[in-house]
Specification:
Elements (H helix, E strand, L loop, with lengths): L6 E10 L4 E8 L5 E8 L3 E6 L6 E8 L4 E5 L2 E3 L6 H13 L1 E3 L3 E7 L8 E7 L2 E3 L13 E5 L1 H9 L6 H13 L3
Helix pairs in contact: 2-3
Length: 181
């Protein structure tokens, strides 16, 4: 057994939906005792930092039901089964913004909430945007509004908590530290 490994003794699926699966595992802890773990299984997701020719970042504003409010985020979406993250990034960029790109650069991947979920988020950046003449339709239950902000404006939105999610905060910090804008 690895130093901190928890051995699964039993696993029970409680719920399986369109996006997540909730399971409860009985585990043996490194000290020999047992405990329960509530886990969310997620297919993974991507997010894109789209930069316009005039050095603005394209964000989307959308209502987030778990928060009961709208927030401003970089475009993002979940991976479909077997879909390459880069392909997902382009699909989500097109659906949410009406832009496409032929050049994506991977910035990072990270687990969003490893204490209870296995969602792996892949972040890409592009400054090679092309407006689509016929953008694909958004998901029927998705309502977004595009917002273009300079890096300084985005930082002010972070301070005001209008940008208030981890992936978008990461994107703003990344742009600031890389001095790309």
């Amino acid at each position: 057994m690895k130093k901190f490994e928890e051995k699964t003794l039993k696993s029970e699926t409680i719920f399986e939906g369109k996006i997540v699966k909730l399971q409860v595992d009985d585990v043996r802890l490194p000290n020999g005792k047992t405990s329960k773990r509530e886990l969310i299984k997620h297919p993974g997701a991507v997010a894109i930092i789209p930069i316009t020719k005039d050095n603005k970042i394209i964000f989307v504003e959308q209502y987030r039901k778990p928060l009961e409010k709208s927030i401003i985020e970089i475009p993002a979406g979940k991976l479909e089964p077997g879909e390459d993250p880069e392909r997902t990034a382009i699909r989500e960029l097109e659906e949410e913004t009406g832009y496409t790109t032929s050049k994506l650069t991977k910035v990072a991947s990270f687990y969003t909430s490893p204490g209870f979920a296995d969602e792996l988020m892949h972040i890409y950046i592009t400054s090679d945007l092309e407006k689509l003449e016929q953008p694909p339709a958004q998901d029927e239950d998705e309502f977004v509004e595009l917002i273009e902000l300079s890096l300084d404006e985005a930082k002010r939105f972070v301070e005001a908590e209008r940008i208030h999610d981890a992936k978008t905060n990461f994107a703003v910090l990344y742009l600031e530290t890389q001095e790309l804008l």
